[in-house]
């Protein structure tokens, strides 16, 4: 299938590694020009070199930290300078540290709200006028399966990510007439460094081996295994595509059937 995004300009947040990197690679392979955003200049440069070596979409990078108050200005300026505008915005952020609800002090809650919610929304608002003027745009927000089924031990994520779900759905209705879609993509257990660290933390808490924790987790997934970054990224690329122009205001799961709710 031709995704129809050759020459489209994509900005992917938190693209140093994991899901963000995977999405950036998938979009570039479909011919999009991609600006990778993240905290590690060395890693971003290596990612872009690998993408550019494939000879499909062009890749560039900007070092910017979602925890930095200047994040939106830094990234928006870089997108204008290096891409000339943004047609596809992939909102993404690293997951917050595990913990219980009583661990969410006001300072911690506010800090993660700013990085996981506020700055992603503010950046989207900054880029929307250009998308409206061109009559085409894709805003894809990567969240967590905790949006629909809160995950034990991840109180901060369970609290903050649902705010993005409400925002994305509301935005979709407001911008559909401009040819812009807004969707939320929920990863289940996708094999990334983040999942490895969560399994390690669970093993330490329970006094079991990491292998035992993973085996138990995979047994609870109907697909019987963790998902791959490539599988998740392919789903993301489709949602950013021309053929997906009638998919908006949706919450899409990529979880091997793990969520039990309808």
Automatic annotation (TrEMBL):
<dbReference type="InterPro" id="IPR036291">
    <property type="entry name" value="NAD(P)-bd_dom_sf"/>
</dbReference>
<dbReference type="InterPro" id="IPR050259">
    <property type="entry name" value="SDR"/>
</dbReference>
<dbReference type="InterPro" id="IPR002347">
    <property type="entry name" value="SDR_fam"/>
</dbReference>
<dbReference type="Pfam" id="PF13561">
    <property type="entry name" value="adh_short_C2"/>
</dbReference>
<protein>
    <submittedName>
        <fullName>SDR family oxidoreductase</fullName>
    </submittedName>
</protein>
<comment type="similarity">
    <text>Belongs to the short-chain dehydrogenases/reductases (SDR) family.</text>
</comment>
